Amino acid sequence: LGFAHKKGCVSVLTQPLILEAKVLLKHSNLLVYQISDELNFPNPSFFSKFFKRMTGMTPHEYQFSK
């Protein structure tokens, strides 16, 4: 498989996860570590790095953005 195909597969798998994280960050009273746990990440640090890599913002930045 080529790089573009692999990237597409990753996107298909991660997009629903990022969408759910965004909804929880904006529309719940959960803290970042609770969302990390809810989405089955191994730890909040991993979740934060993953979220930033996928969105360009940290979970905290996204949560308080307009």
UniProtKB/TrEMBL annotation:
Pfam annotation, one family: HTH_18
Keyword Lipid metabolism: no
Keyword Transcription: yes
Molecular functions (GO terms): DNA-binding transcription factor activity; sequence-specific DNA binding
Transmembrane residue ranges: none
SMART domains in UniProt: HTH_ARAC
Keywords, sorted A to Z: DNA-binding, Transcription, Transcription regulation
Domain called HTH araC/xylS-type: residue spans: 18-65
Signal peptide per UniProt: none
Record's protein name: Helix-turn-helix domain-containing protein
Native source organism of the sequence: Bacteroides ovatus
